[in-house]
Write a structure and sequence with these properties.
- It is a single chain.
- This protein is an alpha/beta fold.
- It contains eleven helices and 27 strands.
- The protein has an eight-stranded parallel beta barrel with strand order 2-5-8-9-10-11-12-13, surrounded by four helices. A six-stranded antiparallel sheet has the order 16-20-21-27-23-24, covered by helices on one side.
- Strand 3 and strand 4 form a beta hairpin.
- The structure holds alpha-L-arabinofuranose.
């Protein structure tokens, strides 16, 4: 339960009630200054960009029960499966239209030798998973299993190659095994192991966290390695790899500067960024379910920090790439807390509360805002690890609050970003603060505008006025809400619907064309304007 210390009082809120900015509303009859807590949306979308669906990507590492027991149970399991992959999980992932899935790591990727994971299972070499619990990895889930699973789910594979402990030849052969259609040693090996035609592999990362677990390299040394390794990751036939260079950790701006300076932009499709929300810092992450209001506000402040990180890395990238050809790929993000008591510390299993649903909403809104540079992202991690969207336990499977945000937000995939301006107070506690309302809007290919709002205030329901600039709001429809009565509420196998996605009737259009959204405390709402 949240410790309700004296935060978010009305007086504190009133004193902090400062408009983030104010914008005239041409089609509505009010000015933003008159609207109080409000969001003004430029509905014309002039000069705007598409929100790349790939920012809704996920991440699956050989870590804890992400792969084994999470995605993969094996063909002989009594748990319903499609070629070894859990059927319940496949269905859940299809529903939210996951656009891409990163694999096999993470830190695991730089110790992974792909040839150990192909061919007859009984011949596959076993290895120690040194990063994650020191458990035996039997390699029963390998390249064929992963790529077949991606085809079944209907998602693009995002492979992370081994630079830290692998050779150029090994990486080059992996690409050949996966994507070459013809006579060659690796293509023949693939055929021998049951797959005649190559797979389509779109996204390919050259190493992971090369500044840390991926080899403790300097950015200059990594840049040289990147240039060399990527040269031999070939494009075969129609398969065109979108190559991602290993980017900075959090605010390591020197890394971004050095890689952008040393690697010609035509050699990379993207540069990665990793940022996790640790409420009290790396050494004081805190519990996923037992936290104070102060820790809650601190968490949200850290979630908003993503905006500053992207802004600063983007401005460095723009010096070398003014046309923004290179994507910033936030291929690890999410909240990272202490593991649940009694679980293996190397398995990174944590619960997922309404706080995490809000972290997801705020972060996705930030990615939308930076859609001109952020064209791919991967939440860490998809099942049973860190900020997961799904938990499994034997035959049981359930969806976390974060899953419901991805479900609710899928309407923004590949839609046109509509820039918006938010006016709101901050929530404050113990020296931490965060904007109470996080918002985003987009227009889909049918011309339907979708608006998403998050109310971070845990105590007060709030009316948020939404005004369109450059269009009339005819009617509102399809409103959905994710909410809870307590910020620490979570789902478990006995209570899988404590937090779920539900219809919402709190959105109304006034005669003045201004929309009022009556947001419950600690809630996320998405609705359509037609
Ligand atoms: O997601 C867990 C780990 O966090 C990944 O393996 C690594 O890349 C990062 O440090």
């Amino acid at each position: 339960m949240v410790n309700l210390s004296k935060c978010f009082g009305a007086a504190a809120l009133a004193s902090l009630l400062a408009a983030c900015s104010s914008t005239g509303v041409e089609n509505g009859k009010a000015d933003a200054a008159d609207l109080g807590t409000s969001v003004v949306i430029d509905a014309t979308g002039a000069d705007s960009v598409i929100i790349n669906r790939n920012i809704y990507g996920h991440f699956s590492e050989h870590l804890g029960h992400c792969i084994y027991g999470g995605l993969w149970v094996g063909k002989d399991s009594k748990i319903p499966n499609v070629d070894g992959v859990r059927k319940d999980v496949i269905d859940a992932l299809k529903k939210i239209r996951i656009p891409n899935l990163r694999w096999p790591g993470g830190c695991f990727a730089d110790e992974y030798h792909w040839k150990n994971g192909i061919g007859p299972k009984e011949n596959r070499a076993k290895m120690v998973n040194t990063h994650w619990g020191g458990v035996v990895e039997d390699n029963s889930f390998g390249t064929n299993e992963f790529l077949n699973m991606c085809e079944e789910i209907g998602t693009e594979p995002y492979i992370c190659g081994n630079v830290g402990s692998g050779s150029v030849e090994e990486m080059s052969e992996w690409v050949e095994y996966m994507t070459f259609d013809g006579e060659s040693p690796m293509a023949n090996l693939r055929k021998k192991y049951g797959r005649e035609k190559p797979w389509n592999v779109k996204f390919f990362a050259v190493g992971n966290e090369s500044w840390g677990c991926g080899g403790n390299m300097t950015p200059a040394y990594y840049s040289d390695l990147y240039r060399r390794y990527q040269t031999f990751a070939r494009n075969y036939g129609n398969n065109h790899l979108l190559k991602v260079a290993g980017g900075p950790n959090v605010d390591d701006y020197n890394w971004t500067e050095t890689v952008m300076k040393n690697v010609p932009i035509w050699q990379m499709w993207g540069l990665s960024l990793h940022y996790y929300v640790h409420p009290g810092g790396w050494d004081n992450k805190g519990s996923a379910t037992k936290f104070s209001e102060e820790q809650y506000v601190q968490t949200m402040q850290r979630a908003y920090h993503m905006d500053e990180l992207i802004t600063k890395h983007d401005s460095i990238m723009t010096k070398y790439d003014p046309e923004k050809k290179v994507a910033l790929v936030v291929d690890e993000w999410g909240a990272w807390y202490d593991v649940e008591p009694g679980t293996n510390p190397g398995f990174l299993f944590q619960q997922n509360t309404m706080r995490d649903a809000l972290v997801a909403a705020v972060t996705l809104n930030i990615f939308h805002k930076h859609a001109d540079r952020v064209r791919m992202a991967n939440l860490a991690q998809i099942i049973n690890v860190l900020q997961s969207i799904i938990f499994t336990d034997g035959e049981k499977m359930m969806l976390t609050p974060t899953y419901h945000i991805f479900d609710m937000y899928k309407v923004h995939q590949d839609a046109l970003l509509l820039p918006s301006t938010t006016s709101c107070p901050d929530i404050v506690c113990g020296g931490f603060n965060a904007a109470q309302i996080s918002a985003s809007a987009s227009k889909d290919k049918d011309g339907v505008i979708h608006v998403s709002l998050a109310n971070l205030d845990t105590r007060n329901a709030t009316d948020v006025k939404v005004a369109l600039k450059g269009a009339e709001a005819g009617s509102v429809a399809d409103a959905l809400v994710v909410k809870a009565d307590d910020i620490a509420t979570f789902n478990d196998f006995d209570h899988p619907d404590n937090i779920s996605l539900n219809g919402f009737d709190g959105v109304k259009v006034g005669n003045d064309g201004i929309i009022t959204v009556s947001m419950p405390a600690m809630s996320v709402v998405t609705f359509a304007i037609k």
